[in-house]
Amino acid sequence: MAIVFDSPSKCCALILFFIYLANSSIEATNGGFSIDLIHRDSPNSPLYNPNETPLDRFNNGIRRAFSRLNRLSMTSSSVHPNAAANTSVSADNGQYLMKLSIGTPPVDIYGIVDTGSDLLWTQCQPCEQCYKQTNPIYNPAASSSYSTLSCQSAQCHLLGSVSCSPQQLCDYTYGYGSGALTKGVLSTETVTFGSTSIKNIIFGCGHNNTGGFNPNEMGLVGLGAADLSFASQVSSQLGSKKFAYCLVPFHTNPSITSKIYFGDKGEVSGAGVVYTPMVSKDDKSVFFVTLEGISVGDKLIPFSSLGAAPKGNVFIDSGVPPMLLPKDFYNRLEQEVKSQIKLTPYQDPTMGTQLCYQSQSMRDIAPAMSAHFDGGVEVPLIATSTFISPEDGVFCFGMNPMDGDVGVFGNFAQSNILIGYDQDKQIVSFKPTDCTQQ
């Protein structure tokens, strides 16, 4: 199956003004390890732009997110039909940049982290066509651990959009609905996190890469559900197919990092944890779950106005900032939110149709809200994830309508929740957590 991620500057972020970047701080233990994720807008982030205002980031994020949504309507063999909902792939998408090293000797790369796609890839020499990149482009000829995959190998066919080169190499094409594209050779390499190295990780060595990528983005780290994904490969080598992350709230000091955990460290347990089943669908690249509805105060707004919620009606995407909901559900939810806020919505041409309010305090706006998942699971949503402040004194609803009947549980709603993906048990775990203390 072909996989599509948004272009690193067009794919992933709706109202985004928060991206995380994993730096080199890695904690390794038996059976697992964790990596720090740095806020995109931290001065320590390679994506940091001191000239960008919060309003700039807000509006740019909206444009990127909807660009990604356009992918949903694309169904060619080279485009992942759900990639649009992944809202998170691009230098300024609602995604994560993870710092890792590949090769022997190791070379640092920064890749966008996306739970909505599978392929790990980076720009490679020689470049037939590469976008501008700040750091040196990886040279496979300089690595003693680099190896190409043949088109006859079983690993080659873990990705649907492959072909056989005249040299019998496994050529891949990975495209985005926004027009971004990476083409190259599926290969294997040693990947290093601090002092931890994992051999024979399958990745895309991209020799032809186009699209709206940021010069600091050196590729993408797919954490999706398929066997090819970086999360699946790493977790399998660690002995358990699970990982978890904890995203700090968006008002947090950018110097405070979030965390992502692999292997046994990705086990979510203890008081307060709740579980909902993953739902298997034709698309094996994303983590589908069933959202029964969202409560506003004491009022539950059901996902469907016609009866039971369809199974697998949303997928969880770390790369998409806002929650994206089918129009009928969103309209009913927005109406209830308006009815419980005793203020007049704030109209500003720069916000488009986004529901916004003017206030000096979040307490005057955001009603208590929770997401309700299959299995009687209720997950509280913190106020700073349901209403986002693009500028002083303005707060905007952190959810948006979308075409189609499958929604996206974006990373705004995921903040201050330890979220675990356990593919062995086929469950997603939620545990309300102060992620600043992880």
Automatic annotation (TrEMBL):
Range of residues in the leader sequence: 1-24
UniProt keyword Hydrolase present: yes
MF annotations from Gene Ontology: aspartic-type endopeptidase activity
Top-rank taxon, per record: Eukaryota
UniProt-listed InterPro entries: Pepsin-like_plant (IPR034161), PEPTIDASE_A1 (IPR033121), Peptidase_aspartic_dom_sf (IPR021109), Plant_Aspart_Prot_A1 (IPR051708), TAXi_C (IPR032799), TAXi_N (IPR032861)
GO cellular component, one term: extracellular region
Domain Peptidase A1, residue spans: 96-431
Family of the protein in this entry: Belongs to the peptidase A1 family.
Subcellular location: Secreted
Gene3D superfamilies recorded: Acid Proteases
Protein name listed in UniProt: Peptidase A1 domain-containing protein
Keywords: Aspartyl protease, Glycoprotein, Hydrolase, Protease, Secreted, Signal
Primary site of residence: secreted
PROSITE patterns for the chain: PEPTIDASE_A1
GO biological process: proteolysis
